[in-house]
UniProtKB/TrEMBL annotation:
Superkingdom of the source species: Bacteria
Classification lineage: Bacteria, Pseudomonadati, Pseudomonadota, Alphaproteobacteria, Hyphomicrobiales
Name of the protein in its database record: ATP-binding protein
Keyword list, A-Z: ATP-binding, Nucleotide-binding
Keyword Amino-acid biosynthesis: no
MF term (GO), any: ATP binding
Length: 293
């Protein structure tokens, strides 16, 4: 029975109120994320809100300038080319010494593959380490698209309390659906097992079952079919990198001066690597008043 103290207003009187409530709810709802336009570019960055940002011009080094990593270059190129042509290929983990061209190689291989006359260009999508939990959602975006994608995460590693590695494992395994056949995952890291050694030892020392304590995290790297190790280069390889950059950018400098300065540069930084070589070239070009174009 209706309470006469609170009479129900006529339906006509309720309609404007309901419309205002519906409009307010619609305004407060998050905006719909537009479907990605993969024709906009060949490279994209995955944004935290679940959007793909086109990258019109990728910051990369030409394949021919990557020296001292010939074997890794050839293996990664062959794996990527097979994938781009619709053949089976493996996820790849590029690990090892800092500055030896791991991320540069991924970007250079992508560019070189797209010069090979593919029916559809290969797309490169970078996902930042802190957004790795969005990887399963990204895979869902890419699965139905006719393009083929290399999803790339630079400097991937996990801290002791970090559980986002589970999102990566789920994406690499693919769950009951399996990993999308049009997606490969490439990652670079200074760590072969993506975990610091002291973290692994701490897990072993405090666990009831030491072996099982680290098995789940260590097994993450097993999801990568290719492990490509990058090691510090020799002095000759370092100088070869310097010579290649000098020739590429047309820098004019006496060979004796170039060698002496390049070696001094690497000594003061305590490292010989592709990154160190390019940093010296930037300094040299600046002192010579020449642009690197």
């Amino acid at each position: 029975m209706t309470d006469p103290t609170y009479p129900i207003p006529p339906e006509a009187d309720l309609l404007p109120v309901l419309l205002r409530i519906a409009a307010a709810l619609e305004r407060s709802a998050p905006a719909a994320i537009p479907s990605p336009d993969f024709a906009a570019a060949d490279a994209f960055v995955w944004q935290p809100e679940g959007r793909l940002q086109p990258v019109p011009r990728v910051n990369r080094v030409e394949m021919g300038l990557l020296r001292g990593i010939d074997r890794m270059r050839d293996i990664l190129f062959d794996n990527t080319e097979r994938f781009a042509r619709g053949l089976p290929a493996n996820n790849a983990l590029l690990w090892g010494a800092r500055g030896m061209g791991k991320s540069s190689l991924v970007k250079a291989v992508h560019a070189e593959i797209n010069t090979r006359g593919l029916e559809r260009p290969l797309k490169l999508i970078e996902i930042h380490r802190e957004d790795i939990e969005g990887l399963p959602a990204l895979m869902g975006w890419l699965r139905p698209d006719p393009h083929r994608f290399v999803v790339f995460c630079d400097d991937l590693s996990f801290d002791a309390e970090d559980t986002s590695y589970k999102s990566l494992k789920a994406a690499l395994d693919g769950g009951i659906e399996g990993r999308p056949e049009n997606v490969l995952f490439y990652a670079t890291s200074n760590r072969r097992h993506l975990l610091a050694r002291d973290m692994m030892e701490n897990e072993r020392s405090t666990a009831i079952n030491p072996g099982e304590a680290v098995e789940e995290k260590v097994s993450l790297s097993d999801r990568f079919g290719l492990w490509l190790g990058f090691h510090k280069c020799s002095q000759d390889e370092y100088l070869a990198m310097i010579d290649a950059y000098v020739a590429r950018y047309g820098l004019t400098v006496e060979p004796e001066r170039l060698r002496a300065e390049a070696l001094e540069w690497s000594t003061t930084r305590g490292a010989r690597s592709g990154r160190t070589a390019f940093q010296y070239i930037q300094d040299l070009a600046g002192r010579l008043g020449q642009r690197l174009e």
